[in-house]
Amino acid sequence: MAKADINVYIDESGSITKKDIEHHKYFVIAILFTRNSQRVKRYFKKGIASLTQNAKYRECLKSKGEIKGSEVTETKKLEIYDRIIRNCKDDFEIGIIVLDNNYTTDTFIKNHARTFNYILQVFFDVLFRNSSKYANTILNMHMVIDEQNIATDADYTLDGYLNQQLNIVNPICNHFDVTYVDSKYHPLVQLIDFVSNTFYRNLEKHDKTSVRNIRLLQDCLCGKRIFDFSTNHDTKVTFHTHARFRHNAEIEKNVIHHQQTESAELWIDYSPTAILSVFFSSLMSFCIPGSVFYLLFPPE
């Protein structure tokens, strides 16, 4: 297959913090990959048009210039997600990264921009590289991020970081570039804000109305799984609520885990190639100062 450029839209929900973790346990990054931005955008805008038939959302759009995912019920989001998936299911993929703040350290989160960049790098190196339907097909990756995003520290630019980490040894693409935008003017940044909020509600708020949306979106996920940044591999996305699902099936069973501890980084993946690529990439740059890498195969 001939390689081609791809557009990537990124947003997040929650905070990277050590304060009041009881109420701020999770930080979620959502990533939309597409080579047909116009088609996905068209159906998202149709969904927003339908949404604004409701006076509440119409006024929100008029006053703010956009409707945030946190302002929309999961029932209303379901209509939008369903419209997009029915018409564009082959045109996009979604990455979901979850950081559990219980397992972060003061050192790890000291610089939020650097932490954000590092989390994305690990996602690309471990999950995207091995499980994405777009893996090995990309020339250049054009990233678009809400300008309100935490990762705008000039000393730790995301594009410079990813180009250094992922395009020297076993490159993912030729080049990463990043543009920070006002989400009011970028519908697909708004769409991925909806998605990040859906997963955040499910994890942080235990919102039962989000369950149906999680189930609908699962087949659109990179590798059909979330990327879990928890030490104990215990991030659980509620997948069923009905009593007949006694096994309480969760996306957790499909999660690839990345463990980070105070003194070490533990990478777990089934692919020797992935482990070696992470190892060589990590040798060449940032990690938590003084940390040691332990590269392990998972138990049988």
How would you sum up this structure, described in words?
- There is one protein chain.
- This protein is an alpha/beta fold.
- Helix content is 36%, strand content 21%.
- The protein has helices at residues 37-51, 55-64, 74-88, 112-131, 158-166, 187-205, 211-217, 272-283; strands at residues 4-14, 26-34, 92-100, 138-146, 175-181, 227-228, 256-260, 264-268, 292-296.
- Strands 5-4-1-2-3-6-7-8-9 form a nine-stranded mixed β-sheet, sandwiched between helices.
- Strand 4 (138-146), helix 5 and strand 5 (175-181) form a beta-alpha-beta unit.
- Helix 1 packs antiparallel against helix 3 (74-88), helix 4 crosses helix 5 (158-166) and helix 4 (112-131) packs antiparallel against helix 8 (272-283).
What is the element layout, followed by pairings?
Layout: E1 4-14, E2 26-34, H1 37-51, H2 55-64, H3 74-88, E3 92-100, H4 112-131, E4 138-146, H5 158-166, E5 175-181, H6 187-205, H7 211-217, E6 227-228, E7 256-260, E8 264-268, H8 272-283, E9 292-296
Parallel strand pairs: 1-4, 3-6, 4-5, 6-7, 8-9
Antiparallel strand pairs: 1-2, 2-3, 7-8
Helix pairs in contact: 1-3, 3-7, 4-5, 4-8
